[in-house]
Write a structure and sequence with these properties.
With about 160 residues, this protein is mainly alpha-helical. Helices cover about 50% and strands about 10% of the residues. The chain contains seven helices and six strands; from the N terminus they run E-H-H-E-E-H-H-H-E-E-E-H-H. The protein has helices spanning about 5-20, 25-30, 55-60, 65-70, 75-85, 115-125, 130-150; strands spanning about 5, 45, 50, 90, 90-95, 100. The strands form three sheets. A two-stranded antiparallel sheet has the order 1-6. Strands 2-3 form a two-stranded antiparallel sheet. The longest helix has 20 residues, at about 130-150. The protein is globular and about 50 Å long.
Amino acid sequence: MNIEITREELIKHGVTVLQSIGSHLICHVCIKSGNSCCKGCDFLQEGVGCQKRNTSCTAWLCGLQKFHLNEIGLLEEWEDMWEQVPGQCFRRDETPYTVKIDSLIKIEKYNDNAAKLVVKKLESFAEEGGNIGKLETKLGLDFEVKKMKKIHPLYRDK
């Protein structure tokens, strides 16, 4: 099944998925701790937020978000959907006006309950002196290594 969808509709769908699973709740904890994946972006307006979201920054997940999506069983589907989208560039968007993808993520079965639990754990971690930025980096690297094991011959199980 192929779905033709505009770049803007795809971005809106991605944001809707992230909001429905409570990703923004996790972002608030991270930002409050002094971190932000958007820091330094020309499209971030102080006190307002993103003024020009693109496919790349919508598709990209930090280590905390990868952990969350993995925990609720959505990480593989998320990555599969976005791997079909051409033109993703760091803080730029060269995605064509319309793209064809196999399917969209169905969000009816998801809610933000798991995110609320992650938030409690992150807040407790930070209160105990943990560094959320370092945790995010470690989780991000852990998920990249797992992804490499799937494709790199040196890491394949024999």
